[in-house]
Amino acid sequence: KAGVTQTPRYLIKTRGQQVTLSCSPISGHRSVSWYQQTPGQGLQFLFEYFSETQRNKGNFPGRFSGRQFSNSRSEMNVSTLELGDSALYLCASSQLGLAISTDTQYFGPGTRLTVL
Amino acid sequence: AQSVSQHNHHVILSEAASLELGCNYSYGGTVNLFWYVQYPGQHLQLLLKYFSGDPLVKGIKGFEAEFIKSKFSFNLRKPSVQWSDTAEYFCAVNANQAGTALIFGKGTTLSVSS
Prior knowledge:
Chain A is mainly beta. Helices cover about 0% and strands about 50% of the residues of chain A. In chain B, strand 8 and strand 9 (about 75-80) form a beta hairpin. Helix content of chain B is about 0%, strand content about 55%. At the A-B interface, strand 4, strand 5, strand 9 and strand 10 of A face strand 6, strand 10 and strand 11 of B.
């Protein structure tokens, strides 16, 4: 079974631009979550989508948004990029959103975003 | 707000030494608990998890963790580390019924010398 895939793997943007990152979950998984990883703040939860609906949102400004498609693939968008948005953005998928103990969240390799 | 504290930022051990990494969380309700590991250049991967039942859980590669509810702790242990255990370890908490949102600790870097 293929794992969680994220594209692109690396991205360089300048301040003020916007960016869209893509995540393809493991086949059959309906929940996709996004995390931001930085050296200073560590791993922080951005949002979760389940069956095309945002189910949960972390404490990030409205410049960060996302969506999920009917095939469970997800995209996240960051508008008006700031230097502090430079980070590794991780996507994770699970079948049922940790609703039961046998459910597990699998992480992708991440997209490394650098904002200049 | 929920938070997770990992007491050790960097741990250095020799091969065959025993390991214990501390993790404490702050949340009064029911929680699900996880330890993830990130080997150099690799994805985050699940080591073990606790949802309910036996508070001593066993994971992959000989790791185990004990949930002590009264201490809000979920410490990770391994009786004898190997050089290949060199990695960053993250403790995480999910508040029951809150979807997949994981609150992570800041991580502990483990360096094992051969």
